Amino acid sequence: MRLDVDISFSYGEVEVLKDVEFSARKGELLAIIGPNGAGKSTLLKCMVGILKPRGHVTVDGADVLSLKPKERARMITYVPQSALPEFTFTIEEFVEMGTYATRGSVRRALETVGLWERKDEPVTNLSGGEYQLTLIARALAQDSRVVLLDEPTSHLDINHTLQVMELLRGMKEEHVTIPVLHDLNLALTYADRLILLHRGRKRWEGKPEELEPSVLEEVYGVKVKILEIEGERLLLAAP
């Protein structure tokens, strides 16, 4: 299973993305990183067709952006940054919304995130971390080939953060899985490959162990160092 992207996007005369090109495959977790305003969220919205970019997005050779919405939903799904729900759907009803275009299993999705036993509770009862898990369950129930997630660990405590990242690590075995991550240490720990965006362009691409502090210093404007601790890389601000 393979995703290929080559797109540009502008708001009027303001160029937001310029010639952003990459590929991703099932079996790897590809994280998109970059400072605020780099175009990360815009990139995901273009890939899923919420915004209309120039260029192409293909899944196994099929042009995603030319498909009708239901057909596109079978190919690619998008988990936005979470905001707590306002309506009292049950957890099961909320996740079932993800199956409108597919035949994905709601039960399997909720079991994957550990919420099946609570399926009859109102979704408004959930904490922020639990609601993020429910959003991921809804994406899993859609059973698309590609899953895009916009900062899935934003505002979560460490327990839910690690739970979400372990879920993404498992999802990559069945889906092309691409999260935008704000936390660089999570990206270094969990991602198999990184794409660094800066001012709407792809500044760097490679494996986490190949990322040099000088690249981050140039993009983020701060001095950093990367330590190796028990085989893991840890990013720290340099004095």
Layout of strands and helices, then pairs:
Blueprint: E1 2-11, E2 14-25, E3 30-33, H1 40-48, E4 54-59, E5 62-63, H2 69-75, E6 76-79, H3 91-96, H4 106-113, H5 128-142, E7 146-150, H6 158-171, E8 176-180, H7 184-190, E9 193-198, E10 201-206, H8 213-220, E11 224-229, E12 232-237
Parallel strand pairs: 3-9, 6-7, 7-8
Antiparallel strand pairs: 1-2, 1-4, 4-5, 9-10, 11-12
Helix pairs in contact: 4-5
Describe the structure concisely for a colleague:
The protein is α/β, with parallel strands linked by helices. It is 31% helix and 30% strand. The protein has helices at residues 40-48, 69-75, 91-96, 106-113, 128-142, 158-171, 184-190, 213-220; strands at 2-11, 14-25, 30-33, 54-59, 62-63, 76-79, 146-150, 176-180, 193-198, 201-206, 224-229, 232-237.
Overview of this protein structure:
- With 239 residues, the protein is α/β, with parallel strands linked by helices.
- The chain has a single domain (2-206), classed as P-loop containing nucleotide triphosphate hydrolases (Rossmann fold, 3-Layer(aba) Sandwich), CATH 3.40.50.300.
- The chain has helices spanning 40-48, 69-75, 91-96, 106-113, 128-142, 158-171, 184-190, 213-220; strands at 2-11, 14-25, 30-33, 54-59, 62-63, 76-79, 146-150, 176-180, 193-198, 201-206, 224-229, 232-237.
- The chain has a four-stranded antiparallel sheet with strand order 2-1-4-5, with helices on one face. The protein has a three-stranded mixed sheet with strand order 3-9-10, covered by helices on one side.
- Strand 4 (54-59) and strand 5 (62-63) form a beta hairpin.
- The longest helix has 15 residues, at 128-142.
- 40% of the residues are buried.
